[in-house]
Amino acid sequence: MKWSKRGLLFEPQRHILPNGCTDFAQSPQALVFDDFVRIYFSTRSRDASGQYLSHIAFVDVDKCLQQVLGTATNTVIPPGALGCFDEHGIFPINVVRHAGKIYAFTCGWSRRVSVPVETAIGLAVSHDDGLTFERVGPGPVMAPSLNEPFLVGDPFVVVRDGLWHMWYIYGTSWVESPSDPGPARVYKIACATSPDGVAWQRDGVTIVADALGADECQALPTVFGCDGLWHMYFCYRHATDFRTHRERGYRLGYAWSRDLRHWTRDDASGGLGVSPSGWDADMLCYPHVFSCDNQVYMLYNGNAFGRQGFGVAVMER
Amino acid sequence: MFTWRKRGKVFDPAAVARADWMNEFAQAPATLVFDTFVRVYFSCRPRPDANGQYVSRAAYVDLNRANLLEIAGLSEQPILDLGGLGTFDEFGTYPISVVRNGDEIRAYYGGWTRCASVPFDVAIGYAISRDGGVSFEKQGRGPVLPADLHEPFVISGPKIRRFGDRWYLWYIAGTRWILNEGRPEPVYRIRMATSDDGLHWERLHRELIPTRLEADECQASPDVIFTNGKYHMFFCYRHSLGYRGREKGYRIGYASSTDLVTWVRDDDKAGIDVSDEGWDSEMICYPHVFELDGTTRMFYLGNQVGRHGFGLAELEGALS
Predict the structure, then answer these.
(1) Which of A143, A211, B55, B155 is most buried per CB count within 10 Å?
(2) What ipTM does the predicted assembly reach?
(3) Partner residue opposite B149 with nearest CB, options A112, A140, A204
């Protein structure tokens, strides 16, 4: 695969966002309209205790992905109620058009005591063309299961021939790490299917081979069909010391499949690496691939998990 | 109205002082009948940690089948391990419900984790014993019945039953957390799920028992027994706030059903209430009803939700 990087597309510090958010525009994900592209992302405020809360916002851009047309002026979806799985933020959000409706699969965060956080996947629907979303229920559609004990998150959904496919991640272990603040988590990519987007069938098995060993963390799968194959981009890193050690931080991984079930990992063919300098020189993460007007684009974050915003690359073919 | 004859307290872990992990509490009794004894599973606690927080461990006491007031044995170890770091049952296994399935014994239990904004969350785990119920092996590191779209938290209080070829799980699901003077208090109601294999569950997604005290009445321990052509449910219920004293604390309620789905609540029929004094004078809760050698019997908890053990009552006549 060959990609041409276009650089930063959106810098949150240059715009006014709802809920007093200033830093971070993480995990950009596109919803294409007739005359613009809406890009959802997670940005952050701080609560009374000084801890981060992730909020969903969006930016509308032109269909060539070159010009910002506007940003969200209102809350897109509020945090969950006291004690709910998404009480302490939503990051990321995956928005899907299906049968005339706009659905959002959310990764909700709630804070824990022995570990910093737990996540699960929720479902919301929009009745106003994606300006705001309403939860279908207060709980998650994808929670821990017997074989997926924690940290179920990062949903990416494709509806094909009436079947809903979800790629997502689940946690396999929490490891004590002297060099990180609190226990460090390990998570892997898995997949599930559903007839309706609510009831999901899953196997509790990982689908992408490790490149960095058992403690490799794999996150945010994005899947698309192109030239007769299915392609998956995701990001991966070492489990510990990944925040400040450049060589241990997130990079983009790549895998391909003929049947959406069996995946062959081939990072070398992914075609997108860190830049020699600049906003995406230290890490690459949270890829999202979509098509618009016969072009294939990838949105992604760079250094510091997207603190400075997100950029775009165009597939060359 | 049923008439129960109270036989007094049966088991108090503090009186046994067997082990550090069984310092006090014997909560949510659940029975498994053997030839010469009745094994009663319960959850107990070691002393709280430096922050005053408890963990719950699951254990059993064997009672002489001919005289249930006589202790015949006690588990040497907790019957279930606590979960690993970050798992749903890292901080407790309470309550537990067991059922025989051929040579194995299945257990469904509430697994406890600690949260930041509310004190805890609970999901239901699944374990199997192949040594006659002395120890249980978890069937996964995660829960078999977690929160879902319509049941957002506190999935607890499992009671496993098998009627015909179908597995039934009665349980409770949280409806909301009330912030009471800064302290979150959970509200929970009785629900039901069914299964062909005990592993994959279909939830009814409906509250089975209407409230009586207030809209936020809390309901627990939905214990179902089939006899005389009818399903009988004994459960406990309390006010949402101020429930630690006699006035608003747990009482035992009753409902009946002919189809397992539609339940008619009739607490006046339950026939058991707090005593004027003693170990069950402030509250009675967590009933478990079973038939043994021609008599219908109930184990239940008293004051402070079983801090000082559980007691026995025996029914005059039959449930009808």
Answers:
(1) B155
(2) 0.95
(3) A140
The whole-angstrom separation of Cα B261 and Cα A118 is 34
pLDDT reading at B30 higher than 90 = yes
**In 3D, which of B226, B170, B228, B168 has the Cα closest to residue B197?**
B168
A83 with B118: Cβ contact below 8 A: yes
Q: What is the pLDDT of residues A233-245, one digit of tens each?
A: 999 999 998 988 8
Average pLDDT in chain B:
97
B182: left (phi over 0), alpha (psi -120 to 50) or beta: left
Chain A residue closest in CA terms to B203: A199
B118 touches chain A (CB under 8 A): yes
Q: Is the pLDDT of residue B259 over 90?
A: yes
Q: What is the pLDDT of residue A204?
A: 84
Which positions in chain B touch A81 (Cβ < 8 Å)?
152, 176-177
Distance between CA atoms of residues B282 and B246, nearest Å: 4
Regarding pTM above 0.95, the answer is yes
Residue B139 banded pLDDT, cuts 50, 70, 90:
very high
> What local confidence, expressed as pLDDT, does residue A182 receive?
86
Tokens of B308: 């000082």
Whether residues A146 and B118 touch (CB distance < 8 A) is answered with no
Decide if B126 touches A, using CB distance below 8 A.
Answer: yes
Task: Say whether residue A225 is in contact with chain B using an 8 A CB cutoff.
Answer: no
Residue A176 has pLDDT above 90, yes or no: no
C-alpha distances out from residue A25 to A41, A92, A311, B266, Å: 5, 10, 10, 56
Partners of residue A82 in chain B, C-beta under 8 Å? 117-118, 176-177, 179, 184
Do the chains contact at B114 and A114, CB–CB below 8 Å?
yes
Signed CA dihedral, B81, B84, B85, B90: sign only: negative
Q: Could you tell me if A142 and A192 are in contact, meaning their C-beta atoms sit under 8 angstroms apart?
A: yes
